[in-house]
Amino acid sequence: MSPRKIIIDTDPGQDDAVAILLALASPDEIEVLGITTVAGNVPLALTSKNARIVCELAGHPNAKVYAGCDAPLTRKLVTAEHVHGKTGLDGPVLPDPVMPLQDGHAVDFIIDTLRSEAPGTVTLCPLGPLTNIATAFQRAPDIVERVQQIVLMGGAYFEVGNITPTAEFNIYVDPEAADIVFRSGVDIVVMPLDVTHRALVTKARNDAFRAIPNRVGPAVAEMTDFFERFDLEKYGSAGAPLHDPCVTAYLIRPDLFSGRHVNVMVETGSDLTLGMTVADWWRVSGREPNALFIGDLDADGFFELLSERLARL
Ligand code: RIB
Ligand code: CA
Fold first, then answer.
1. Contact 126, 261 (CB under 8 A)
2. What tens digit of pLDDT does each residue of 89-120 get?
3. Average pLDDT in the 37-41 region?
């Protein structure tokens, strides 16, 4: 089977970094057509720098990285240095990137790629706020039906919010963009906090990363050493939740994940619940299902896959 063509839209972020590393370590299953950056965890200049740092860490200096939107569609940018550190990639000491950003805007790359590749052959993998994706859909409505699938990290239902009592960060930063994406009609797979909070980097799992005999494993362990502070303090969890790698792991081993096709809508009007993903898990709304909302994973299988693939880099 030929590898799946994807565009990773990202706001690195330590967990974004692991998702990108997993994708680049899996060429039999995934062909990364390009990486598009968006403002989110940290401002755009840093997410664009971090994406290239990660590509070079993976030994992929020829990966194509395009800078995208530096602010949400209509709102002021909210960032998450309190989680990811002021660089967005705190933890390991990694060299500044040598590889350049590609010329051109990320949104134009998304549009041009979807128009030039055969319809239904490109999967979009958003790992941050959905600003770039929504902007591309607004600017070029013809590309929407050409998207094979969207597999995104974002949202929460039973797990409720991590940035407000009701909203997960990626959706909260740009709820209008998320609303556009969830109403687009594209086949969507959602990796919400409901599942990512079960993908915890326990000490044993991080020691396994640290023991990988290359420069990637120890770097990932140091990223997690830093990244876990927020969740350990807030939730008392057993380790850092690897949110974004659930997206790329799903492309490789969908059997590790389970969920339900339900209707998911995004709150954009209420200040109290802004950015909440209202998942009609018990199908009471009468609204058409528009997403596969993932609720669980085989965590041991997920981490075995991660360790095995990171060791390939
Ligand atoms: O809420 C978790 C999400 O927000 C992850 O994608 C993390 O990288 C941040 O972007
Ligand atoms: Ca992210």
1. no
2. 999 999 999 999 999 999 999 999 999 999 99
3. 98
Q: Which sequence positions are flagged as catalytic? A: 243
* CA neighbor of 148 nearest in space, from 177, 179, 187, 180: 187
Q: What tokens were used for 126?
A: 């958003």
Ligand 1 near 84 CB (within 6 A): no
14 C-beta closer than 6 A to ligand 1: no
Task: For residue range 243-274, list pLDDT tens digits in order.
Answer: 999 999 999 999 999 999 999 999 999 999 99
pTM greater than 0.85 (yes/no): yes
Domains of the chain (ranges; CATH) run: 4-310 (3.90.245.10)
Q: Check if 194 has its Cβ closer than 6 Å to any atom of ligand 1.
A: no
DSSP string over 4-69: EEEEEEE---HHHHHHHHHHHT-TTTEEEEEEEE-SSSS-HHHHHHHHHHHHHHTT-TT--EEE--
DSSP state letter for 213: S
Distance 286 CA to ligand 1 centre (A): 30
Atom of ligand 1 at shortest distance to CA of 129?
10
